[in-house]
Amino acid sequence: SVAGDHTLTGDGVPANLRYSLGQQADFMPAMQVSAPGQLTESIRVSWQPVANARAYLLVAMSGTETRAGGTEAVIWSSSEPPESGMGLMDYISNPNIDKWLAERVLLPASQTNCEIPAGIFAKSDGAMLQSIAYGSETHIVHPPRPANPKAPWAPEWAVQVRTKSQAMAS
């Protein structure tokens, strides 16, 4: 666990670099994903709720050789609007999580299943599923920003903690 009080010391480190992290900044449990079924059929993907998750995203992909000798890639994501999700399999900021939840790019933390439509991977020999549970970001700055935006402010140090949990299935 990283929740609790922290002190950093060392050459060049400010003497007052002390901060506390709450439970929302702690390590997230491993994401457990299940996606049983045949690639020619609809596949129900389910997962256990992840503590401190704010949102989820799932992305599945496969590659198939074409008759002409080329490769056809198929990508599916749990996003309602068209979004491959490839750039979202990383940490994202709290404001972006809020924005993309509202736009239905991300699944809400209360959701624990979704469905890959039948036939998407019908020509494939296999597919890979990536999933991510987004946690919160914590920002701590010392001294804190003054309430008056016109007041002078010279931060001495800042800490940023990001959390996520990922899983892969094939």
Write structural notes for this entry.
Strands 5, 6, 7, 9 and 10 form a five-stranded antiparallel beta sheet that branches. The chain has a three-stranded antiparallel beta sheet with strand order 3-4-8, with no helix packed on it. The protein has one helix at residues 94-102; strands at residues 4-7, 18-21, 33-34, 43-47, 55-65, 71-77, 107-108, 113-116, 128-142, 157-169. The protein starts with a strand and ends with a strand. Strand 3 and strand 4 form a beta hairpin. The model has no long low-confidence stretch (mean pLDDT 92). The radius of gyration is 21 Å and the shape is elongated. The protein has 170 residues and is mainly beta. The chain is 5% helix and 39% strand. It contains one helix and ten strands; from the N terminus they run ββββββαββββ.
Provide a quick synopsis of the model.
By secondary structure, the chain is mainly β.
Mean pLDDT rating: 92
- Element-by-element helix/strand order: EEEEEEHEEEE
- Specify the number of helices: 1
Distance linking N and C termini: 30 Å
Any idea what the shape is?
elongated
Q: What's the alpha carbon Rg, rounded to whole Å?
A: 21 Å
Number-wise, the strands total 10
Which structural class fits the helix and strand makeup? Answer: mainly beta
Q: How much helicity do the residues have?
A: under 10%
Strand fraction equals: 35-45%
Uncertain segments of ≥5 residues (pLDDT<50)? none
Q: Biggest β-sheet, characterized?
A: 5 strands, antiparallel
Write the layout of secondary structure elements.
Blueprint: E1 4-7, E2 18-21, E3 33-34, E4 43-47, E5 55-65, E6 71-77, H1 94-102, E7 107-108, E8 113-116, E9 128-142, E10 157-169
Antiparallel strand pairs: 1-2, 3-4, 4-8, 5-6, 5-7, 5-9, 9-10
